[in-house]
Amino acid sequence: MSAYLSPPPSSNCATPRALTPRVSPRPTAGGWGAFLRRALHAIETRQQLAEMDARMLKDIGLSRAEALEEAHRAPWDLGRRRP
Questions:
Q1: Residue 70 has what pLDDT?
Q2: Lower Cβ count inside 10 Å, N or C end of the chain?
Q3: DSSP letter string over 17-60?
Q4: Over the chain, what is the mean pLDDT?
Q5: More reliable by pLDDT, 56 or 32
Q6: Residue (of 44, 53, 48) closest to 75 by Cα position
Q7: How far apart are CA 81 and CA 61, in angstroms?
Q8: Do residues 42 and 49 touch, judged by C-beta distance below 8 A?
Q9: Other CB atoms within 10 Å distance of the CB of residue 46
Q10: Any idea what DSSP says for residue 66?
Q11: Which letter, b or e, does each residue of 62-71 get, where b requires 16 or more Cβ atoms within 10 Å of its Cβ?
Q12: What are phi and psi of 72, to 5 degrees?
C-alpha cells in the first residue's frame, strides 16, 4: 500500500477520510456486461408482456393492469416486485 493511502505507523489518531483507500462500488467490466444483458432482456420481455392479449395474460395469471405496471418498470429495476 502506498504511503499516501495509509497513516504513519506511529500515528495514534483515527485515519483521516482522505487517506482511507476507496474501493470502487462499480462492477467490473464483466459485471457491467452481465447487467446490460439482463436489462436488455427485461426490456424485451416487458415489451412482449405489454403486447399480450387478455387470453394470454389470463393463462399466466396476470391482469392487464399488472402486466402494464410490469411493462413500465425501468430497465435497471430488475428485482422482484413485492405484492
A1: 93
A2: C
A3: GGGS-----S--HHHHHHHHHHHHHHHHHHHHHHH--HHHHHHH
A4: 78
A5: 56
A6: 44
A7: 15
A8: no
A9: 19
A10: H
A11: beeeebeebb
A12: -90, 5
Specify the residue for cell string 456486461: 33
Q: How many CA atoms lie within 13 A of 48 on its CB side?
A: 7
Reading the block at residue 35, the C-alpha cell is 447487467
**Residues, the chain:** 83
| Cα 44 from Cα 42, distance rounded (Å) | 5
Question: At a CB cut-off of 8 Å and minimum separation 6, what does 19 contact?
Answer: 4, 5, 6, 7
Does pTM top 0.90 for this prediction? no
* CA angle (69, 73, 76) in 5-degree steps: 160
